[in-house]
Design brief:
Layout (H helix, E strand, L loop, with lengths): L1 H8 L2 E3 L9 H5 L7 E2 L9 E5 L1 E2 L13 H8 L10 E2 L1 H4 L2 H7 L8 E6 L4 E5 L10 E9 L2 H4 E5 L2 E2 L7 E4 L5 E5 L5 E8 L2 H9 L5
Antiparallel strand pairs: 1-11, 2-3, 3-6, 4-5, 6-13, 7-12, 8-11, 8-13, 9-10, 9-12
């Protein structure tokens, strides 16, 4: 079902949902002290998360902004992206997010990520390839002009992403991101794979 979506429509699918708010920094200013280091086991990488959903609906960042794979291994748990389905106050502050998430049956682990200068995610693939994919990812470049401030490479090809617009991106393919400024913010939502959620994507594709 998911592989057929990418096969038919490509690895980067623009969506018609209401764009993320233009004044995103102002919108998130009440949560200035709630940003947590994304994956605290790698403190040298300048990236910080603000939870849109979490395990308990709070903004502690634990464990939703940690490496879930590593957290599970340490604590003997089996948490998945779909486990983090409690919406936080950050979600409720954004009309765009409310509009977007109301179109899906459910939403998994989701957050804003803010980069410092030189912040990055190295080349990687998302998901557990020994199992059918349980979720897919919806993104927006909430703040940061793509060419000047931020680069997203997928299999060595640069993606052209319009600021504030929503996309489904096939992150099962090898990809990396890098920020040249300390103002870049991206929005990442994990959407559980289901017939209803895939149909919502199809209904909201912004393609000719």
């Amino acid at each position: 079902m998911l592989s057929q979506l990418f096969s038919l429509y490509g690895d980067v699918i623009p969506l018609k949902f209401t764009p993320i708010e233009e004044n995103i920094s102002e919108l998130l200013s009440p949560f200035e002290n709630d940003w947590k280091h994304y994956n605290p086991k790698k403190p040298d990488i300048k990236r910080y998360g603000l939870s849109i959903t979490s395990l308990d609906g709070l903004l502690t960042g634990l464990p939703d902004l940690d490496s879930i794979k590593e957290y599970n291994a340490i604590h003997g748990l089996r948490l998945g992206e779909e486990s983090f389905d409690k919406k936080t106050i950050v979600h409720e502050s954004s009309k765009s997010l409310i509009n977007l998430t109301s179109s899906f049956e459910n939403v998994g682990r989701s957050h804003f990520i803010k980069f410092g200068i030189g912040g990055f995610f190295p080349y990687h693939r998302d998901g557990n390839f020994r199992l059918p994919a349980k979720s897919f990812r919806v993104f927006s470049l909430a703040q940061g002009h793509n060419k000047a401030d931020f680069i997203w490479l997928m299999e060595n090809k640069r993606l052209e992403i319009i600021e504030r617009k929503w996309y489904v991106i096939n992150t099962f393919k090898e990809h990396c991101v890098f920020s040249f400024t300390d103002k870049t913010i991206i929005t990442v939502l994990n959407i559980p794979v289901s017939t209803g959620n895939i149909n919502s994507i199809i209904d909201n594709m912004d393609i000719s």
